[in-house]
Amino acid sequence: MKFLTVFENTPVSPPPVWMMRQAGRYLPEYRETRARAGDFLSLCLNPELATEVTLQPIRRYGFDASILFADILLIPHAMGQPLAYREGEGPVLEPVRDRAQVARLAGDSAERLSPVYQTVRNLRAALPAEVALIGFAGAPWTVAAYMVEGRGGKGFVAARRWAFSDPDGFQTLIDMVTEATIHYLLAQIEAGANAIQIFDSWAGLLPASQLERWVIRPTRRIVEALKARHPQVPVIGFPRGVGPAVPAYCAGTGVDGVSLDESLDPAWAAQAVPAGVVLQGNMDPQFVVAGGPAMRAEADRILAVLAGRPHIFNLGHGLVPETPPEHVSELVAHIRAPVGAGA
Amino acid sequence: MKFLTVFENTPVSPPPVWMMRQAGRYLPEYRETRARAGDFLSLCLNPELATEVTLQPIRRYGFDASILFADILLIPHAMGQPLAYREGEGPVLEPVRDRAQVARLAGDSAERLSPVYQTVRNLRAALPAEVALIGFAGAPWTVAAYMVEGRGGKGFVAARRWAFSDPDGFQTLIDMVTEATIHYLLAQIEAGANAIQIFDSWAGLLPASQLERWVIRPTRRIVEALKARHPQVPVIGFPRGVGPAVPAYCAGTGVDGVSLDESLDPAWAAQAVPAGVVLQGNMDPQFVVAGGPAMRAEADRILAVLAGRPHIFNLGHGLVPETPPEHVSELVAHIRAPVGAGA
Question: Are A289 and A323 in contact (CB under 8 A)?
Answer without folding.
Answer: yes
